Each structure stands twice: as C-alpha cells, then as structure tokens.
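Q: glutamine--tRNA ligase, please. Structure only.
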Amino acid sequence: MISSSSSATRSGKNRNVFPKVKEYVSTRTGKKMAEAGKKVVESKVGAVKKHNEKDEEHKKLLEVLGKMVGKNENDSGSENPLDLFLKIGLDEKTAKNTLANNKVTANLTAIIHEAAVTDGCDRTVGNLLYMAATKFPSNALVHRPALLKYVISLKIKTPAQLEAAFSFLDATASDNLKVNDFEAACGVGVEVSKEDIESAVNEIFEENEAVILEQRYRTNVGELFGYVRKKQPWADPKIVKQLIDAKLYALLGERTAADNEKPVKKKKEKAVKVEDKATVEETVEPSEEETNPFLIFPSPEENFKVHTEIYFSDRPVLRACNSKEVLEKHLKVTGGKVFTRFPPEPNGYLHIGHAKAMFVDFGLAKERGGCCYLRYDDTNPEAEKKEYIDHIEEIVRWMGWEPFKITYTSDYFQELYELAVELIRRGHAYVDHQTPEEIKEYREKKMNSPWRDRPIEESLKLFDDMKRGVIDEGKATLRMKQDMQSNNFNMYDLIAYRIKFTPHPHAGDKWCIYPSYDYSHCIVDSLENITHSLCTLEFETRRASYYWLLDVLGLYQPYVWEYSRLNVTNTVMSKRKLNRLVTEKWVDGWDDPRLMTLSGLRRRGVTATSINSFVRGIGITRSDGSLIRLDRLEYHIREELNRTAPRTMVVLNPLKVVITNMEASSVTYSDAKKWPDAPVNDASSFYKVPFSKVLYIEHSDFRLKDSKDYYGLAPGKSVLLRYAFPIKCTEVILGDDNETVLEIRAEYDPLKKTKPKGVLHWVAESAPGVDPLKIKVRLFDKLFISENPAELDGWLGDLNPESKVVISEAYAVPSLRDATIGDRFQFERLGYFAVDKDSTPEKLVFNRTVTLRDTYGKAGK
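A: Structure for glutamine--tRNA ligase:
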C-alpha cells in the first residue's frame, strides 16, 4: 500500500545534500533568493560544511554560496531580472515583455545562472538561452544543464540545432542521455562552409528562377530559406540570408517603383448561376477538434512528463512527474486504458454544469475505449443524504452514461488513514489545536501554527486519540505541513482530517474522523489508477497541493487538467443558492422545471441528447468567466424536439366559435399530421380531429379591427382552420361592457373554394354539448430577469414574477387523452410541451419545454 518516498528518504542521506543545494542555487536566485533571505542560504552552507568538508566539488559550491551571501549583504540579495536579460543581449522590448510572463521570467533567470552568464554573454548565445527558457521540454529538465554547456561552448550555435536538441530531449525525457546520438541529431561538430551554403542557394534559385522572375521582390524569402534548410539544416542563418539577398540582387537588379507597390487584390468572380432548380450549398467541414473534442488529452503512456512545477519558499522547485518504473506499474494494472472518474458530492441535485463534467469524464473514457468511475466524494457526513446518492446514480444513467464501477471515497477510509499516519511519520503532517478562526487568521498572515513543529511521535499519538474519539470535536485537526510562505494560498498547511461525531451515510459509525477533500481526492485518484483527473478551473490553484501530497507519499500521479465551468444566463448554479431557492420555497423543489438542475430540465421535457449536444457544441476549453446564453441551449432543445415530438393542437385561451351553416348534430373528422413530412400511406403518422358546430380558437387570434399585417380572424374576414375548412366571421357577440368578445359566429366553406392567408389551430367539441378535453398547462420562462443574477447582492429580488404562468382550463384534441408522463409534443403554433408527473387520470398537466421562437439560430450557431 505505502511506497517509499524519494523526497522523504532524500532529506536524511548525506550523499543527497549537495544536489538539493545545487538545485536551490539554480532555481531560487535573483528576486526569489532575496525573499528567501540570508539565513536560508547560510543554513545550506552549514549543511554542506557539516557533511562534505573534503569533497572538492562541494567546496566549489561553498564558494558560490558564500559569494551569494556576500552579495546579499551588499545589495540586499536582489538582482534585477531586467538587467540580467539585457546583459545577455535581449533588446529592451523583448526583455520587458518577458517580465510580464512569470513562468518565462523564472525559467530564463534560472537558465542564466545555470549557464553562469550573469555577467553577460554574446547576443547569439543570449537568444539561444531565451529559446531554451520558452521551449525546453518540461519532461527533460534533468538534461537542461548539459544542453546549456553545448550552447555556451557554441557546439550548438543555431536555432535549427537547438530545435533539434529539444525534439531529441523530449523523446529522451528523464532517461540517460546518449551523447553520441544527441550530437548527431543536433549537428554538433558539423561545419557547413560558405561554399556549401552558396551551392545550396544556387541550386534553389535554378529550380525556382521562373517564379522568382515573375514575382521579383515579392518572392517569399521565407520559402527560399526553408528550401536551403532542407538541404543544409545546420547552415548559419546569417550567411544564408546574405547569400539569398545577394542572389536576388544579381538576378533582379535594383528595386523598381513597381516592386514597392502593394499588389492589387483581384476581385472574386461571381459564380455562374446553374440553371437548375436544385441549389447547391457550400458545406464547411468541421475541424478535427469540433468532431472530436477529446484530442487535446494525452495518452496514458505519455504520463511520465512533468505535470507542473511547484515553487517553494524554502526548498527546490518540485517538478511533479511519474518515474518510468511507477508509470510501468500503473500501465500494467490498467492495461494502458484510459481511466477517468466523475466525482460528485452527494449533498444536492446535479445541475447542467455537472452535465458538462459527465461529458468530459465519461466522454473521454468512451472515446478512448476506457473506463469511468462514478465516485461519490462523501467526506462530509453532515451534508450527505441517501436521497442525493440515489438521484445522482439515476440521473447519470438518464444522461446516457454507464459507470465502469460505482465507488465511494469512504470505501478508502482505512487506506487514507494509514497514509495519513505515514505522512506524519515522514514529517509532512502535524496535529493542530487552533480554532477555525485562528487558522484563518494565521493563514492570512502567513504565520506558522504554534504546534507546527511538535515532535512526530506526539502527533502520531494525538492522531490516534482523534481516531479513538478521545479528543472533542473542534479541539484538534490534522494539517499537512506544506509551505506557509508560498504564493499559493492552497499550500498553507491545508487540513487533512477533522473530528466529527456524526454517523456516515455509507460507512456507518465506524469513524469519528473524516478526511478533507484536499487530502482524499488526489489519493483516491491514485489508488483507483485514474489516468486523467479532470476538473473545473477553480481547482487549478489546488494542483500544487494535489501533486505535493502524492509526491511526498511516493504515489502514482494522474494527469490533471482543468476546463472552464459551464455558466448559463438567467439562472444560478451554486449549490448554496439552489438550496436556498428550494428550502425557502421560491421554487417547487429540486426538480422545478425552471431550475437548471438536470431533474428540473428532464421534468420540463428537455432530453438528455439535447443537453449532451449543447455541451459538445460549447467544447472543452479553458476560457473562464464567460456566460453561455440560454437561447443557445434552447436551440439544441428545439433541434431535438423538432425531430422527435409529434404535432398536436391545443388552445390555451379558448374563444368560442359557432358555425352557423352546420347542423348541430353534425361531426366530421379530418386527418391531422403528426409530422410535417408524414407519408400519405402511413396511417400511424396521422391522428383524427373532430370538426363540429362548436369549436374554439385562441383569443389572441381574433381582433375587432383588421389590419394588413394581421392574419388572424376579424369581422367579415376568412381564415383557414388547420387540416379542416376555411371559416368567415359573420357576427361578434360582445359582453355588457360592449368590448369583451364572448363568442364568434361564422360560416364555413365545405368546398374550400376560398383561399385565405391566415391559418389557425383550433379544437372542436367531439359531440354536441360535450366540451373538448380539458388540460392544465404551465408556461415556464426564465427564472431570473438579469443575465447574471449570481453577481447581484439582492439576487432573490431579481426573480422573474412571470417565470411560471398556469392555465387551468386549456382545450386539447381528443387524441391527447392517452398521453403518459414524459411524453413530448409540439403544440402547433405554441411550442414544445411535456406531460408532467402531477397529471391524474382526470386531468393531464403539461409543462412548456421551449417556445417555437429561435433567436439563437437566427443570430448564428
């Protein structure tokens, strides 16, 4: 279970003191050395003196460190990075731009010291050092000092050679460097004479003379460079440029005025119209990343590269990566497959943001033929309920995903405890007695806990007391001993364990100490051999803590990658705000159709397919802080329901129409289409609609005053009833106020001779005196008025009072009587609706999923 830690064993070994100090010198110089202070350097000198007095190489290091201490005394230990960059020949603009990038600044500063050119160097060498700072492969940092010797000695002196070196070292990674192969790959020792370069240039000009004469000085010189480089990859680029320029001048002579004119862009000729009724649309092929958004993730075999660099205030930089031995052991267990996990906390209902997480975690595993765990991150027994656990499993499957295995963090409580004990033994954790308020204050002030340096044996005993329930809740925690002076707040001695005398929903009452997320998450990832640990960007600052803990315990390290959260307009996504909406009865439960919870969306009638299509369309990016418009989601919902929802007719606000030229007992039936392109010979694609003396249209489809742009019914005007006959308004019955329309009298055209422009949906009595089928309809709209209510202090005051409108007495065609819960329909001219779970045999209830209007599709997908 517990493997030995390289970092733990290293600290007590005499032979390894020097490498630590050496790395310290190379990475903590300049400004960072000043921050570390004179005492830290002197302590390192003392360590070297104590253990290595007779070692000649160590004596040299002592001299270097001594000079640095002296420098500290003389100039406060501060070296201006800008001065260093200018000394190596960078121009002022490049040097200042470099300072804007902290990572490149740190890399270049370290390289200048490693190469021992703090007093300056040739500009050519300086440019190569800059290339090394920006492009050196992170998985081969162990070989950087060797490469710098080649650069300083001018054995590698061109960008082409350096690029070749990067490629070779990237493939070599941390393996032993094969010097002969390396030198051959980089052209070390290869001298290309001016005559050889001239011969290559002449050859290129002969091959391309016709094109050069035509284009003259507009010739792409970069292409000519590329041709020469293929023939002579190690040629000096300065000499190549001189010879190409000279050859161009010899061939073309002096530049003319025409050579200096900007080329005139030719107008695109209009395509000749094809005399054919069929129009040919130009199709834009989607990019490879749009087709497969998972291409950005590396394969499990590549997990030996450096994941990240963790900078400390008091020790060398940690370059987190797996050794080849650890990776091989991992690959043997997994068979080289991708293993991911979807790790929700069972303390609430999943929302649409979790749909993106599922798409990323389950989707990557599915695309690579791998496995995805559903792992409940159940480390807080006070907030977790079986209701949430059951909901999560059910909704994951509804979304179309099948877990490889369902696990709980609590399944690993024993292993986590044993590793915590080992963490204490290795000096990387301690039992603390500060209150939460004191911890917060000390962390803000970057102050060590008074108990941080207590003896290891004391912490071991106290941690055992915590486990046995001897210490009261809130009186002790186990904290990781990380780096209280770090620039990363998530390295300030995070809590690993706390006491809670609360039974656990899954583990029962066996434990009274529970691990924190920061402690347990990375370890369980490692224990489950996760290849890709994928999470949202707010966890990016926790990456240092994640890898630090796995490194000090000597455990396998998964590949961590963060992506942007999914934020949708006109809603809130935080569990705290969602919980308040539910508990304070602002909405009707976790599955209220106005919420962006997945159960709420499902109840509203949204399909899992459309949600996954929406998430895929957004992509897996790291651009954070953006809001996705709600109408973009609605576009994907409409696209899906337009293909799958049968059409039917419902009248929401009925207005009675009496057909005066029809017998009271007469009822005829028309065939109505369930689908726009319903084949005539397929009876299942049609439903019967009764047409009788009394029928109903929408109140909004009648006006007392007609207008040119109005296609509804008006006095003396005709409209076509969908699938039936034209009718003409002949009389209007008004109420006592002489304004309210109570009833319409109309005549129908049984021969369909009239051809009105307006087409209305309608519902008729199926028998004389029998009302149409009555249904309840809920019209849902945006829950909040503002696009981003979460940023408002009074966000509850932004709730949309019109987000839910209930119509208790709508009329529907008889065929809807057989609809069951979850069935989806398009109510013609109204929108898409789904049967709600509140339906009874006496009365169906429909929720509006989305309107027919599509603002996103019109604006552009």
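A: Brief note, in case it's useful. The two ends are 51 Å apart (CA to CA).
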